[in-house]
What does this fold into?
Amino acid sequence: MNEQKPIKVILVLGLFSFLSALSGSSTSLAIPKIALSLEISSGLATWVLQSGLITTTIFFVAFGHMGDLLSKNFIFFSGGIAFTIGSAITGIAPTFSLIIIGRIIQAFGSSMIMANSMGIVSDYFPDKKRAQALSYISMFISAGSISGPAAGGFIMSVASWRWIYLINVPLMIAVLIFGHHALPIPKVSIKQLKSATQGANWMGQGLFTAGIIIFFLSGAIFQSRSNWLIGLITLVVGGALTIYSFYQDDVANLPWISPKILHNRPYLVSIMALLLVMLVNSVSNILLPFYFQSYGLMTPFQSGLLIMLQSLVMLVLSPFAGYLADRVNRQLMTIIGLVILTVSQIGYLLYPAGMNLTRIIIPIVINGIGMAFFLSPNNALTMGLVDKSLTGIAGSLNSFSRTIGMTIGISFGSSILFALLPNVDQITPALGETFLSAFWGVFYVAIAISSLASIMVFVRYLRAKKTA
It folds into this structure.
């Protein structure tokens, strides 16, 4: 590989990641505005975000598997095209239903991109340089997350929220053109596509899809407060189907996931820890806009500036964390990151009734520090535990854990919030202590989950020391 090739690979992967993060963080910020614009409840508006995350989650494994069989680059760039089309539809759609369709297409593309990005990094970078390469990708993600609230807040201050999607179209087209020249994209024929998918475990994919949809449908039932028993049954059935789909795939003739992956315990611990971390982090992402805008009456731009602080901290610290992860014990770094993350969740419990900026900013900054010191080491650990021939599916499962954690955090974070606010459809300052009690209640759950993740990685660290 020539000296410029790694730089081009990082730029291509980074720019795709930047736009994906930009869209996701803008969507989180826009939810209160979308609810008012479409005259729907705040709870229903969260499905503009959740529908995309659920769709991405469903197709991660399939596209990671196809990347290993066909070409990671081909699936990756095809995802960029789908993301562009979905962004355009979402931006111009006149109804809530069509907006959801656009978001699903956009998410379909995101799943193709994210399922193969870590595999591409593993193809181009050896293990001793992988953590730093992944940290550069994290920088682009952080930059997108920073730009999302700031740019989205500015756009919504001067124009319709629809422009947070429409702006993706010309930007993604430019990135696709650059990426086409920077990375080789092999031609894949219809015959090759048929060969790669022929005999695949479609029953397992169907079970997984049904399980994920039913599982997250329970969140909508809980939010509607129509019947808690039905919601609980839906939650259990969806979860059971999702878990069973992995067992069914493990015994299938042509599984989507290699048995070597599902029986690799250290790898599974890494992706489970990632799932819990993203779940916890997403709780604050979905709740803070309601606290700032709906309860605190901040403008979207002001709210965006505060929320972007977490990503700004990650942007600054990710290269340093990646540098350390290639030189010190990665497992120890994940423990440190998780302890810091838990402290940040305790900080959210101290949010006041008035908009005290000092008390608001400190937990957000600590949250960013914890995420920076966890993500790069854990991602490098994850990809270093599998054979190179399986980096596509391993990377897609890592992205799956990341996204399903985000989806669960958003779905059930908002579900718990509105469950603690009976008969409330729109959050306003008039709710006073009632809203704050519900807000704090969600973060008690987040503290418990982040503590569980800390214990998991600490036990992994102790076991590794015994076997060393």
Residues 215 and 235 are 5 Å apart (CA to CA). The chain has 18 helices and no strands. The radius of gyration is 21 Å.
